[in-house]
Amino acid sequence: TGPVLEVTADSITVQKGKEKWKIARDKDTKITGDLKVGSKVTIHYTMKAATVEVKGGEKKEEKKKK
Fold it and tell me: In whole angstroms, what is the distance from residue 64 CA to residue 61 CA?
């Protein structure tokens, strides 16, 4: 929640305390009201993984023979 600093076709930048949050948006983003610079907004968002690359891995322990 905070004031809107910038609005573009694909993002909204909001001031949150001392931090600036740039949130992506697309054709499916629902906007209620008149979104413009200076408006106070609350943005509900999710974080979604686009890709996951696993690096390294666990070393397999060699079985000891008795």
Answer: 9
CA gap 47, 22 in Å, rounded? 13
10 Å Cβ neighbour count for 29? 13
Cα distance between residue 52 and residue 63, in whole Å: 31
Query: Which one-letter amino acid corresponds to residue 48?
Result: K
pLDDT at residue number 61: 61
Question: Within a 10 A sphere around the Cβ of 12, how many other Cβ atoms?
Answer: 22
Question: What are the tens digits of pLDDT across the range 17-45?
Answer: 999 999 999 999 999 999 999 999 999 99
Number of Cβ within a 10 Å radius of residue 37: 11
Predicted local distance difference test score (pLDDT) of residue 57: 75
